[in-house]
Amino acid sequence: xxxxxxxxxxxxxxxxxxxxxxxxxxxxxxxxxxxxxxxxxxxxxxxxxxxxxxxxxxxxxxxxxxxxxxxxxxxxxxxxxxxxxxxxxxxxxxxxxxxxxxxxxxxxxxxxxxxxxxxxxxxxxxxxxxxxxxxxxxxxxxxxxxxxxxxxxxxxxxxxxxxxxxxxxxxxxxxxxxxxxxxxxxxxxxxxxxxxxxxxxxxxxxxxxxxxxxxxxxxxxxxxxxxxx
Length: 229
Fold this sequence. Notes:
This protein is mainly α and about 230 residues long. It is built from 9 helices and no strands. It folds into 2 domains: about 30-140, no CATH class; about 165-229, no CATH class. It has helices at about 30-35, 40-55, 65-75, 80-90, 95-100, 110-140, 165-175, 185-210, 215-229.
């Protein structure tokens, strides 16, 4: 057992291990493919238009728009907090490629990413995500069960309090409880198994594709009917 400051190897390495590893990104990595296929000029123009519409003054240092646009796309394709996003962009090579940061040591911190999303607002983030998410799902470059087109400028670990979220959580809890429940609940689940699958599809549709208030209301009513049953 080691002593002092933790346990170290008793067989030291002949040469110090490099803390700047070099590793190529696979050509078929989905973040690399996504990066190469996105029209970044168009996306940056959209983000800049949203940003300028929210600003009261253009004073101050301009943001690293390309890197922050990449951070928005990364958070749209993977459910993570701002701290996790910072860590991914700083140390994960495909994420740095997505943010256009492979030729620099700089990367945005969690506060910068959060402030940028809050400036764009929920509607601005939704516009950006919808443009990227729908294309990425169609091209099978991202898992639609993880992607959220109507994200809010909040930590991903804090659920946004909407009715659909509560209904989805309830259905998940019922399914999870079935393993510990009696025959009554198991029989119920067997009878409504198809409808629960439909409910999951509706939750996904609500998050990704419901663009109008009437469409969202319709999906919410259908989910509520399943939960009521």
